[in-house]
Amino acid sequence: MRVFFAFFSASFLLMGCNTEHHASANLEGDVRVSMVVSGMFSLQRDWKRTLIVEHRREKISRELLEDTGWWRGSNLYLAEADLVILDEGQGGCVAFRLNPVRFDDQASRCPERLEKLTNEEVSGGNTNAKSDVYSGMRYLGRFNEALDKGAPVELLTQEEAPEIRLPAPI
Question: What is the pTM assigned to this prediction?
Fold first, then answer.
């Protein structure tokens, strides 16, 4: 009986580890940005995360830092006409260009945060999407851990949730 219980328990724990969940944003110009999370072996909500960018017939992906409890969401910004920034908070920034589609590690803007939200976590719900954290950028939305929903990751557009100041990169 103990062997059966141990086998059943181990099987139950492993079932959720390989499940992938997606959240996507469709941006202007036929651009799709997705975050894919898959469970790690743990009783907690720990995730392997991947960023996928699709534009026209091009597709690139990058593994993000694994979430072992530190992740507070990832803000998505339009910095220039073809430059998009994903602010990972403590994980730093990931930048990608759209024409052609490629990651651009030189374009990270994490160190240039504005100081006007020093004592506030949440912006005032900017309706024109102008970023309150980064000068000259447009806030598009936030990939967020969905605690009370079926899928563990969701995309909240700037209309659905205000921009938040994420923790500074480590």
Answer: 0.78
CA-based nearest residue to 122, from 61, 69, 66, 165: 165
Main-chain dihedrals φ then ψ at residue 38, nearest 5 degrees: -135, 140
- What gap in Å lies between CA 164 and CA 72, rounded to an integer? 10
DSSP labels, 64-102: PPPBSS----EEEEEEETTEEEEE-GGG-EEEEEETTEE
Half-sphere exposure (Cβ direction) of 74: Cα atoms closer than 13 Å: 31
Cα separation, 100 vs 94, whole angstroms: 16
Q: What is the pLDDT of residues 48-60, one digit of tens each?
A: 889 999 998 899 9
Residue with tokens 């469709």: 26
The residue type of 58 is: E
The overall longest dimension of the chain from CA atoms, in Å, is 64
For 110, the 3-state DSSP assignment is: helix
Q: What is the pLDDT of residues 82-134, one digit of tens each?
A: 899 999 888 889 999 998 999 998 887 675 676 654 434 444 454 457 888 88
